[in-house]
Design brief:
Blueprint lengths: L20 H13 L2 E2 L6 E2 L2 H121 L21
Antiparallel strand pairs: 1-2
Amino acid sequence: MSETTETTTGTGQGDNPAGGLLDILEDLAALVENARSVPLSTNVKVDRDQALALVDELRDALPTQVARADEVLAAARDTLDDAHRQAEEIVAAARARAIELVQSEQVVVQAQSRAADVVAEAESRAAALRTDADAYCDGRLADFQQDLDALSSQVRAGREKLAERLEKGTPRVRWDAVADPRWPQERRS
């Protein structure tokens, strides 16, 4: 290893294995890119100690980085699972609310239908009661008219009798002037 290429392996990355895989890979790439070419070939001379130091850093950092990646993936998976669970809860709550709204609307529709039926029945019963009341009143008025007609006939007959008596000159007796008024006896035949 006669020729060495100066490269920086990142300050303090040997002490900190979590210094970053990308930084170590960049240092390794810089080591190869800056290495001297072997004459008449595409090969290069690389400082073995530097290359092995970078590989050791990769070996040290790789488990840490993989563990971090696993942690990030697990956290992402947990977050995704939590988001799925929350989404399912939201969808379930929305479905329950939709069912509740549909049922309450059905209840409203049923209540409106029942109310319309009750109103129609009440109007029908009211019309029937009105018809019955009108018929009853008409019957009572007809009876009253008959009674009045009969009473009117009796009054007319009584007045005619009185008129006959008055024409004959029979004196009229005032019942309030008589000490012991007695009704005339009916004629016996």
